[in-house]
Amino acid sequence: MGRFIQTEESTGTIRRAALSADAPLFMPDAPLHLMGGRHRQTGRVTFPYPGDQFDPVALPTRGTVWSYTIQRFRPKTPPYAGPETFEPWALAYVELPGAVIIEARLVGVDLDAIRIGMAVELTRVALDPAAQDPFWLPAFRPATVTEREAAQ
Amino acid sequence: MSAATNVCIIGIGIHPFGRTDGVSGLDQGAHAVRAALADAGVAWGDVQFAYGGSDAAGNPDTMVDRLGLTGMQFINVRNGCATGGSALFSAQMAIRSGEFELGLAVGFDKHPRGAFNALPAEYNLPEWYGAAGYMVTTQFFAAKIMRYMHLHGISRRTLGLVAQKAFANGVHAPHAWRREEVALDTILNAPMVSDPFTKYMFCSPGEGGVALVLASEKKARELGIRPIHLAAATMRTRPPASFEVFAPSIEIGGGVNTATRLAAAAAFEKAGIGPDEIDLAQLQDTEAGAEIMHMAENGFCADGDQEQWIAEGRTAIGGALPVNTDGGCLACGEPIGASGLRQVYENVVQLRGLGAGRQVPGAPRTAYSHVYGAPGVSAVTILHT
């Protein structure tokens, strides 16, 4: 595992070389599905995909907010590699039914409107939106109602 | 168990917590050792061994340079927030085994200002996790209490009351960092750091040093010291399906079992007493929510009871179970290597009846201490007179 190395030129930005050594977060053939791991013996599902003794598995894309908080100050760099200019962001644990509870950003919702139990769906958010080739983080947004659900 | 292998605390010393510019963490540890030796009435040359802990202030064994090159055994301990507890566990084992009769557990630290900045590689986590801004301990504590409040009906006001009590107790603890009362409204209306916590509800990384002189009961009797008995010292790691600091995922249904529950159960079994027989407790309060949740995880109340307990002042000095009598981490700050031993120091002060303005009334006979930290470690001690 490569350590994030900070240089004068890259302060606050991602060294892609270090991050690319990590296992992918999204399924290579299905970009908006997260890649979890299912333990070969116990069937326990975890995220991110941990490698050895786990099979890759696409995680459900819809779930509910299990808990959350708002990050109100800029985390220290290193290791944080977000933009220098900090805007508070929401961090949630999202329960993906039958699979696992995962930690991810919450987007597309007023910070005051977040509630435990709210339905959310998977999206992604750029760690640094200004970057030319941004690193994409898993994120969830309030679930859109499907046509079938609306008809019920 | 024979008297020869019962372990006692015969001396305590502390360097005040907070910020002491110009004094290294190691020197704060050495200061605490000298104070503990003086308290016990023994000399550095009498110390047969030491276990020393520090997270960020250098190798503890280098303090022999300050204290005297006697050739004694000195083992360094680095175990996150359980560093002090692990040093104490190891020290009492050295005596219980019969290997030694008198030794030290010492812990100190000196952290830079601001939040801890842990790195992913130190916790076997991928680089993106740190780059994303998730290596922030405050996020975990906030998310944990947010769910706990939702499930068990704990109000934000109760979080404020815990912080208010901590600062009120700290006023009377000479070793505390924050020694001024803070009004409940000030606490509740202060800027939010990580919802639902305002800045007064979190402790800060800080500095400090603590040392305990341990001896066999037989040795304590020879020295003519009225000892405090160490009934149990346990340390545990996380069980399956727990929710811990730096957790990218949690098992479905998880978050109930914790390292704390394991360490607490083991300690009560070892001591042969139950939570209702504890007269006062120091519970890890890195923020106001942790104290609340740890009351239940350590077995002192059921989930949700805290709302009423705290409203009734049951955890205040003079309550049924005073908690964090010196203001805990909220008032003392958290120098990781020293923090767990600070709790034990405070318990010894209380059991000796020397707490002055913060003394628990009624001559307490049993005292409990508990730490918790990344990546899911906990240590507990039980003392009795």
From TrEMBL, chain B:
- One example GO MF annotation: acetyl-CoA C-acyltransferase activity
Signal peptide: which range, if any?
none
Q: Which residues form a coiled coil?
A: none
Q: List the Pfam families hit by this protein, alphabetically.
A: Thiolase_C_1, Thiolase_N
Matching entries from InterPro entries are given as: Thiolase, Thiolase-like, Thiolase_C_2, Thiolase_N
Q: Which UniProt keywords apply?
A: Transferase
Domain (Thiolase N-terminal) spans 9-176
Q: Which domain of life is it from?
A: Bacteria
Q: Domain named Thiolase C-terminal: which ranges?
A: 258-382
Q: What is this protein called?
A: Acetyl-CoA acetyltransferase
Native source species: Novosphingobium sediminicola
